[in-house]
Amino acid sequence: MKLSYDIYICGVGGQGIIKAGEIIGWAAMKEGMDVVMSEIHGMAQRGGGVSTEVRIGKAKGTIIPSGHADLMMAFEPLEALRAVEKMRKDAYLIVNLTPIPPFNISLREYPPVDEIIAELGKFSRNLYAFDADRVALEAGHPLSMNMAILGAATATPGFPLSEDAIIESMRENLPERLFKVNLKAFKGGFMSLEY
Question: Which residues form the Pyruvate/ketoisovalerate oxidoreductase catalytic domain (predicted)?
Fold first, then answer.
């Protein structure tokens, strides 16, 4: 029996990955659940990969074992492909479609995004890829992309936290002056997921 609901969040530095993890973790505590987190900030200043692991429930450690993540929130397509070994076979995978090439390759060398998405589809039947950057721009600020991804993740079946708990955590963990924009991005992501 699985003791925790495990969420793997990945992307590149500056996309708000750690903040999204903090909001989930804070919401879990507000709902009386146990939660542990870990973060990897490798080369974030140079556009390198960043990941956060959130384990809600009775996890034995902060690192999600390979093949155990119930949900992956990928803020960048290639970073999703790098992390697929973390997911269970029936995991939900939410992916932003906007590529950010690693610092050591150009956009011309970056694999076509549709090929990356097709490859990700081999690892998850519960794949949802959408233009979260566009949702954020429509909400009023490109940096609210992380909240659009969080909104879609919150709408997945089996997500252990209520929409209200996530929104309350957003209110407590984001700058007040940006809350309305972030809430609009969150709602846009939530509504874009059709099940």
Answer: 13-190
**What is the rounded CA–CA span in Å between residue 162 and residue 140?**
25
Within a domain: 1 = no
- DSSP per-residue string spanning 5-42: EEEEEEEETTS-HHHHHHHHHHHHHHTT--EEEEEE-T
Q: Positive or negative, the Cα torsion across 141, 142, 147, 151?
A: positive
Looking at the chain, how many residues does it have? 195
The answer, yes or no, to whether residue 7 has pLDDT greater than 60, is yes
Cα separation, 35 vs 47, in Å, equals: 28
Q: What are phi and psi of 105, to 5 degrees?
A: -135, 155
Domain annotation covers residue 185: yes
* 3-state SS class at 75: coil
Q: How many domains does the chain have?
A: 1
CATH at residue 180: 3.40.920.10
Is residue 195 in some structural domain? no
**Domain assignment present for 27:** yes
Establish how many alpha carbons lie within 13 A of residue 96's alpha carbon, considering only the half-sphere containing its beta carbon: 30
Please identify which residue in the block is written with the tokens 């957003």: 170
Of 179, 154, 156, 146, whose CA–CA distance to 31 is shortest?
A: 154
